[in-house]
Amino acid sequence: MGVTLALALLVPGLARASDASFRVALATWSHRIGVDARGIGLSAVHRHPRRLTARALRFRADALRARRALARVPVSSPRGRRAKLLALAAFRQYGVVGLLWARAGRARVAHHQVTATEEARLAAAHSKRGNVLLVTAGKLLR
Predict the structure, then answer these.
(1) More exposed terminus of the chain, fewer Cβ within 10 Å: N or C?
(2) How far apart, in Å, do the first and last CA atoms of the chain sit?
(3) DSSP code for 77
(4) What is the dihedral of CA 133, 135, 139, 142, to 10 degrees?
(5) How far from 137 is each of 23, 30, 98, CA to CA, in Å?
(6) 93-102: b or e for each residue (b if 16 or more CB lie within 10 Å)?
(7) Within 10 A of 54 (CB to CB), how many other CB atoms are there?
């Protein structure tokens, strides 16, 4: 009887701890992706297509790493599960964004301006979707 009571009191604390660890992991990867995105933006503004391509590939690799890392972190509450699904979808979108930015950079190097512009517009659209998903996931974990 005493063991059951102690376990019942401990389980809600563990649930919060698991969601808290997911929140910390999400914040860490979100920050890393943000730093990578800032580098892509600077490369684009300063018109360095080769640097943009390299940073976009790093962004994509980090997005895929983040997705794998977050998939391994357990969550215990229904809000945590929903946040995890949204976060994984966001990082999947960011993987697409990295690929599109890399293609845009390669097109710029090859002097295919129309293709580069199309790829950049697609990347911006996917980025907005990813941002909405990530912000929503963060709000669920508060």
Answers:
(1) N
(2) 34
(3) S
(4) 120
(5) 9, 11, 21
(6) bbbbbbbbbb
(7) 16
CATH number at residue 64: 1.20.120
In a domain, 4, yes or no: no
Whether 10 is in a domain gets the answer no
User: Residue 34 domain-assigned?
Assistant: yes
Distances (CA, A) of 95 to 19, 78, 98: 24, 26, 5
Q: Domain of residue 82: give its range.
A: 16-140
Number of domains in the chain: 1
CA distances 139 to 68, 80, 84, 87, Å, are 21, 10, 12, 11
Tell me the pTM. Answer: 0.86
Q: How confident is the prediction along the chain (142 residues), in pLDDT tens digits per residue?
A: 544 444 444 445 444 568 999 999 999 999 999 999 999 999 999 999 999 999 999 999 999 999 999 999 999 999 999 999 999 999 999 999 999 999 999 999 999 999 999 999 999 999 999 999 999 999 999 9
